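Fill-in record for Methyltransferase type 11 domain-containing protein.
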Amino acid sequence: MKHRYFSPRATIMNTFFNQITQSLPDSKLLLFEVDPKKSRQWNANNVEPPTWAPVVSQCVSQAQIESPIYHNWCTATHDMPRYSRKQWEYVYVLESLRQQGLLTAGRKGLGFAVGTEPISAVLATYDIQVLATDLPSNDARADDWKKTGQHADILQQLDARGICDPANFAQHVQFRPVNMTEIPANLYKQFDFVWSCCAFEHLGSLEAGLQFVTDSLQCLKPGGTAIHTTEYCVNSNDRTTTHSSTVLYRRQDLERLRDRLQLLGYKMDLNFHVGNDRWDHLVSLPPYHGSALKMYMSPFITTSIGLLIKS
């Protein structure tokens, strides 16, 4: 099937936007305009919206989703491009790996809390050795993820889309139960890269998530790269959800992480710009709808941010 690239000026985009906003009740979607003063505060360090050229630690945006790069990765993951931040997270990880020169045969990658995401299968098509991990099935926290189809406990779940030849997949991908808060020492210094998608904000507290990111670096070989995505609190750099099953990271938290990692010899360039286009102003309200780049978790607005950590 031939896909059409999205364009902010294209009739197909405007038609889709109008259909979705008109068909859903007001209780599910709302449009918000960024206050100019608040916008200047958010964009104080990086005034340019995020792009794929090059990837840094950045937020999801409409412009990235409408790019040929995004389209190509959706094709690779056997998916149609959508205004979906979860889909963007997969693309962010894969494009970051490509730009770092890590999509080459013989590389070794470690994925945390992989659920049923397609990344492991895509990596196998590049003849990369992958260790995919998720919570042990007997961990009580795994039950909620199983209910929503976001937990893996067998290898076959990692290529449900049929992305990779089965024999090649079996040759290159292994599965192992791992608790993110207790990374086994025998995984240290074994991998060219590690990744996770919107996982470490579910570890119970802001600090628990930041500690995981720090600990995950121990699994890297010298010169390795870590790529993680998480929740970013758009409308507050003061109050946030600090202890919960889902916490929201503020700008100050991620800047503190950047400074912590710098002391360990790692670099994490941050761009907090949250986008200026039409879909960047669409906020999903509970019960949430998948076609939105921001969510309202009272009283906060959250979006996805990717963290690219290089030595």
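KEY FINDING: Residues 60-266+287-310 form a domain with the Rossmann fold fold (CATH 3.40.50.150).
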